[in-house]
């Protein structure tokens, strides 16, 4: 970082600001490889290790989570039901934070 005449600082064109003085090539490639590794690991799980479900089963679970299916004796996992409800509450909380208040 260099100081201007008026005392403000600006980043050097070659070094960048927070990249430890390098030009960023090594950091960019490392990040790309890490992200590609995470992505390919996720794809491997999705295609080879994930449980084989049929669309009918997915629809059944969605109906149970949305309380559209009556009591048929099947008990949903309470952790999944809790996560389902919490994930519906987060957008509500964020929207309430974005609404303007009456105070000035």
From TrEMBL:
Keywords: Membrane, Transmembrane, Transmembrane helix. Residues 1-26 are annotated as: Disordered. Residues 14-24 have a biased composition (Gly residues). Residues 1-13 have a biased composition (Basic and acidic residues). The chain crosses the membrane at residues 33-54, 74-99. PANTHER family: PTHR36009, TRANSMEMBRANE PROTEIN (PTHR36009:SF3). This is Transmembrane protein. It comes from Solanum tuberosum (Potato). The lineage of its organism: Eukaryota, Viridiplantae, Streptophyta, Embryophyta, Tracheophyta. The gene is LOC102603098.
